[in-house]
Write a structure and sequence with these properties.
The complex is a heterodimer of chains A (341) and B (432). Chain A has 341 residues and is an alpha/beta fold. Helix content of chain A is 33%, strand content 13%. The longest helix of chain A has 20 residues. Chain B contains 14 helices and 18 strands. In chain B, the strands form four sheets. In chain B, strands 1, 2, 3, 4, 5, 16, 17 and 18 form an eight-stranded mixed beta sheet that branches. In chain B, strands 9-10-13-14-15 form a five-stranded parallel beta sheet. Chain B has a three-stranded parallel beta sheet with strand order 6-7-8. The longest helix of chain B is centred in the middle third of the chain and has 17 residues. Chain B is globular. At the A-B interface, α8 of A face α3 and α4 of B.
Chain lengths: 341, 432
């Protein structure tokens, strides 16, 4: 019987799912794609338990004592990196942050070289963000450590989708049969892709709402309803998930201006009134107030769960570190440990 | 409050939308058509109504000119909203749509509001406008199409500039489709034209003028149609002028693409020989084409490949045209010759009278989703009374337009506007 939580440090937490027989069948967490609904449910249950741990005065356990986690970020990030760092530290692991954009790459080292170098130091988990889609998977094939995708290009950001799901599940009690509208820059968003995959898998109904310039081709093939009008797209929704619009895309390339974008696609009370009265507002952050979301609405504790999403982020990342280190499957594609030097 | 009524008696009622062509009467109440038909006033017109006796002349919806340059704001010495309004009135045009190539460019709601206010003050033909596709017509950044549409622009175009960058056009078509709006292209591959001022061929060679191949037009349309298929956007090719372009658009329509086009009178009424001895009034963009192209434009109008005729009214002062041909400005004024030149197609037997009218009334109005261009109960009372047969010679000195740059001066034509009415208000009455 595995009790994941030291009784000395905290009160035992009961999971709705019995973890004793559980073995996470994947060596890495590269995306939502490939996960089963059961695995997602389990990750969410486990994360839910970690929420309680994080709310205690003493937040530290030692379940990852002796494990080394390297946050390898090829793209700048504050909140995701901090969230992973806290997650690792609260579980007693040793966490190192590496911002590669500012070091090795500038010296001409390739991503693979960087990964091999780090691999030689025997880390247990690599948390990797990279501006290119598929780069994290490529890296995972070259190392022995478990790899968590913290965002690769426009492809996936699985921990974001999991933390969004946990936020929704804790508020609404379930994910299935909910109608979720995702609005904003779907085209460039890995968050949207991971969320669409996860929510569909869990039985939610997903809509995307955006101007055509911000929608990827054939997005309707992902099993989503496509809308170009916020009022139409938000009608009857349980969840409104806003996405960030990058500054460089606001001035005539994808949308004409901030003013026009906010007028037609910015979430304000009037547009939100088309959603269900108890609909929740979400945003993966960082927000552009007055661009995709009305500032005052973003702060409304009755509607906005944006800060809760951040809290869930740490818990979800703890759950991910947990399943990949203690209930882990071996990395079949990684190099022979003895050969890695 | 009693309604203001006007009864139009003894008219030949022409409605291109319903193919109505019969003797009858029409009643306007408070600027709207409330009734029409044969024998409407068999028992005499309603008491208290103003009476207009049409004397058997044609009564049709006022012309809808979907391509006009008014030069205001910015170049009021060449044309203004008021002078263009008078020219339109004299030409039987009750609605005109302005290109955004003013100064400043119509790329901001404030300019749209300015034009709307000036049009209200002028109280002549209705004035609509297009917004520019890109900011300052710079070809790179999209304008605030949604906000501009809410302010009332009818579509988007960079005027006489082709939008050449395919990525920008793709995004423009996609973005405009988000709001169901029309994108209008000035179709030419500018890089192929370079400094060409007329169509490449024997005449250009004899004149020794820099010229550009007619293919520059169809190449752009063919490319654009790929983007239309890709985006599902609404695309309109302005002033098509070559046989190849008409063929390509005809085929695209058959394939179900969302494409429409217009042409201007000079492309079916003139060919490149009109340039004659370096006549700069015949310098226009796209340039006048070969006789074979001219005939293809007529055919395209007859079989519906070309949806509309627009005057492409481009007023320029003497200083812009009294120059060596290569240096002169491109453009022809057209508001006051639109109807008689369109009627040439009817008199020459290519189109019926109703078909010819359709190209300048209901077709452009439908394209731009305006409830005008028709004689129907409830429609705005925008009317033209004209004699389709009366011969006269075009006389640029009599033009109300501030600019006289027309190659049609002294051309014998048939068809005279007798009265032009906007929402029940006569804005032009021909001296008896």
């Amino acid at each position: 019987m595995i009790n994941p939580y030291s009784p000395i440090l905290m009160a035992p937490i009961s999971l709705s799912t019995d973890l004793s027989a559980f073995r996470f069948p994947h060596p890495h967490l590269l995306g939502i794609e490939g996960l089963s609904p059961e695995e997602i449910t389990l990750l969410l249950d486990l994360a839910d338990a970690y929420v309680a741990q994080n709310r205690q005065r003493d937040k530290k356990s030692d379940v990852l004592r002796g494990r080394t986690i390297i946050n390898l970020f090829f793209e700048n990030s504050t909140r995701t990196q901090t969230s992973f760092e806290l997650a690792g530290k609260r579980m007693g692991g040793d966490v190192i942050n590496m911002s590669v954009s500012s070091s090795s790459i500038k010296k001409g080292e390739t991503m693979i070289d960087t990964a091999m170098t780090l691999n030689a130091m025997h880390p247990d988990v690599l948390v990797v963000r990279h501006p290119d889609a598929g780069a994290v998977k490529l890296l995972s094939e070259k190392v022995n450590a478990a790899v968590i995708n913290a965002g690769d290009g426009r492809h996936e950001h699985p921990t974001q989708a999991l933390l969004d799901a946990l936020t929704i599940k804790r508020r609404k009690g379930h994910l299935d049969r909910l109608t979720v509208a995702i609005s904003g820059d779907i085209l460039h968003s890995r968050v949207a892709r991971s969320n669409i995959l996860l929510l569909n898998l869990m039985g939610a109904r997903v809509r995307v709402v955006a101007p055509l310039t911000l929608l990827p081709t054939d997005i309707d093939r992902f099993g989503v309803e496509v809308h170009h009008d916020m009022r139409e797209g938000l009608t009857g929704c349980d969840i409104v998930m806003m996405l960030r619009l990058q500054t460089e895309r606001m001035h005539g390339m994808f949308v004409p201006s901030i003013r026009e974008y906010f007028h037609f696609f910015g979430l304000d009370r009037e547009k939100l009134s088309y959603a269900k009265p108890d609909a929740l507002v979400m945003h993966p952050g960082p927000m552009n107030r007055g661009v995709e979301i009305d500032s005052e609405l973003a702060d409304d504790i009755n509607r906005s769960v944006i800060r809760e999403q951040v809290e869930m982020g740490v818990a979800v990342r703890m759950a991910c570190l947990d399943v990949l280190t203690r209930y882990d499957a071996p990395n079949p594609s990684g190099p022979n440990p003895s050969g890695a030097a | 409050m009693t309604k203001h009524r006007t009864a139009y008696l003894n008219a030949r009622l022409l409605d291109p939308e319903t193919n109505l062509d019969e003797r009858g009467d029409l009643l306007l109440e408070d600027g709207r058509i409330t009734d029409l038909g044969p024998g409407l006033f068999a028992d005499g017109p309603p008491s208290g109504a103003d009476i207009v006796d049409c004397n058997g002349h044609c009564l049709a919806p006022g012309l809808f000119d979907m391509r006009v340059q008014v030069r205001e704001p910015g170049e009021e010495h060449m044309e203004s909203i008021e002078s263009a309004g008078h020219a339109a009135a004299a030409g039987g045009v009750t609605s005109m749509v302005c290109l955004p190539n003013t100064n400043p460019v119509i790329d901001d709601v404030s300019v749209v509001e300015f034009i709307a206010r000036r049009a209200r003050e002028a109280k002549l033909a209705k004035v609509f406008c297009y917004g520019s596709l890109t900011r300052g017509m710079n070809g790179t950044e999209l304008t605030e199409m949604g906000l501009l549409a809410e302010t009332g622009v009818l579509g988007f175009t960079d005027g006489e500039k082709a939008l050449s960058n395919p990525l920008v056009l793709r995004r423009a078509l996609s973005y405009a489709r988000t709001f169901g709006l029309l994108v209008i292209q000035h179709p030419e591959v500018a890089e192929l034209i370079e400094d060409g001022v007329m169509t490449e061929g024997e005449i250009a060679t004899r004149l020794g003028l820099p010229s550009a191949p007619a293919e520059a037009e169809v190449m752009m349309v063919e490319r654009d149609l790929r983007l239309v298929a890709l985006t599902g956007g609404r695309y309109h090719a302005a002033h098509v002028s070559t046989a190849a372009t008409v063929d390509v658009i005809r085929r695209a329509k058959r394939d179900g693409l969302n494409v429409t086009c217009d042409t201007a009178p000079h492309y079916f009424a003139l060919n490149e020989t009109s340039i004659g001895d370096y006549r700069t009034f015949a310098k226009v963009t796209p340039p006048l084409r070969s006789e074979r192209d001219r005939q293809a434009i007529v055919d395209g109008l007859a079989d519906g490949a070309i949806d509309a005729i627009a005057s492409d009214h481009s007023p320029y002062d003497q200083d812009s045209k009294r120059l060596p041909f290569a240096q002169a400005t491109f453009g022809i004024v057209g508001l006051e010759s639109l109807l008689p030149l369109t009627l040439e197609l009817y008199h020459n037997g290519y189109l019926t009278l109703l078909e010819a009218l359709r190209k300048v009334t209901i077709n452009p109005a439908k394209l731009l989703r305006q409830p005008v261009g028709r004689l129907a109960r409830g429609a705005p009372g925008d009317l033209v009374i004209f004699d389709p047969d009366k011969p006269w010679r075009i006389d640029v000195d009599a033009f109300r337009s501030k600019s006289k740059n027309s190659p049609f001066d002294e051309r014998p034509v048939q068809g005279v506007v007798l009265r032009t009415v906007v929402e029940g208000r006569a804005i032009y009455i021909r001296d008896a």
